Amino acid sequence: MKNYLSRTLSLCLLCTASLSLAQTQSIEYYMAGLHNQQNTHNNDPLASTTVPDFGIQAIGPELDETDVRYGYAVGLTFKVGTRFLSRCSGTLLTQDWVLTAGHCVDQHTLHTLFKLKDDDVLTHKIMLIGNTDIRDDEGNQTHFIDIKGQADAQPQLHVHAEYAFPSLQNAEKRIAFAQDDFAVFQLNSAAPADYIPAFLPSRYSFTRHQVEGKKLTVVGASPVYGDSDQTDGTLDITFRKARPTVGAGDGAERDAFREDEYRHNILYTNRLLCGGDSGSSITTRQRPATVLGVTSQGSNAQKGQCGGGDNSQENFNLFGAVNLENNPALVDILAHAGIDYLQNTVYISDTHYTGVFIDNPIEAQGRDARAVIDLKAISALSRSVKATVIGIRADGSFTKLGNRRLKSHRYQGTAELRLNQLDQYASLLVAFKPSRVDHGAEVSVNVIRQP
């Protein structure tokens, strides 16, 4: 298990203001050695395949075994004894850890909503996209994955510390609920390697995508449309995708979404979703996906009106934003999944390279495989500032992984690199080229390490 944020920061936070001479020389050494190296990773998220726009429809069409590009999406059913009650959705963040909504797994919430007895044992069953070979001839599920430890009444399941039973009487209460409506749980068996987990978001992700009129992607495990009995969990869990539009809809939440007080805590879109889509992620459209928010609430979602794909403006959907910078309790539960969030500061020099070293420790017989390098210029930059990321192996050899240029007028001074196949590196170096014009400028370097 990875260390929690407070301990991690004490070990890994390196500001260039306090770098020793040897460390400064080592940065210069690595940068000098990169003169003839080319990037070895294609880490530009904009270069990823863009999914075509299928238009407005009720979280459809159906996805099947050919759609493992959406394999980060999982479906959940709730079961008491042999009786299935309802459904939710979730998102793979690693091969065996899932992010979902707190109200999908919180025992008190589920017992209250479904009026269960105190001694009723409620269990969760999980399905992956494309598991069509484990359905019977009528399309019914014949196999599910359990939450690890669930059989022993010790499930590996962690709910956001600020989560509380929903009180949704007005827009402010709905927003307050959504921003804490998170949970993570561990699968009893890992997803196959071709199911690519979603990346967590950088500040660049929000700046670029949390924009009114932007179309994003949601994949959820809704009931089959047209089913008269939408609570029959033995029926096919049907994965469907939708293209909601950020800021569309005329609910009171829309006005709140536009206010700075709430903008970093929620996402708001027109409503295309159903009750079974709670816990699904709203993501970027390029692959691998970046998760921006988790589905918390939707107007009419529980009133049997979701099957027709109603896109009327008075309906809405509300997501809790996966904003690690503003949500320390979310960072805490992600630590159970082995995900670290590191915060660093670098100051630009006019004479030499400056930077920060990020450890990639060996834990559970392996190193972290992925990371998001999250950059933001805190000081106003007169020109662009170049950041280079280097992977350093245990034997001292190193490789250039990519670079980005920060510009104050572009995406509010933010940029990101999404890196994979990092398990061969003992550490990463994020280094900044000297600049006479922007000498002394402060740059925030946050790193999200994912197994």
UniProtKB/TrEMBL annotation:
Q: Which residues form the signal peptide?
A: 1-22
Query: InterPro entries in the record, alphabetically?
Result: CLIP_Serine_Protease, Peptidase_S1_PA, Peptidase_S1_PA_chymotrypsin, Peptidase_S1A, Trypsin_dom, TRYPSIN_HIS
* UniProt-listed GO biological process terms: proteolysis
Q: Which SUPFAM superfamilies match?
A: Trypsin-like serine proteases
What UniProt keywords are attached to this protein's entry? Answer: Hydrolase, Protease, Signal
State the PROSITE patterns in the record: TRYPSIN_DOM, TRYPSIN_HIS
The record's listing under Pfam families reads: Trypsin
GO molecular function terms listed in the Swiss-Prot or TrEMBL record: serine-type endopeptidase activity
Instruction: State the name under which the record lists this protein.
Output: Trypsin-like serine protease
**Which organism does this record belong to?**
Pseudoalteromonas rubra
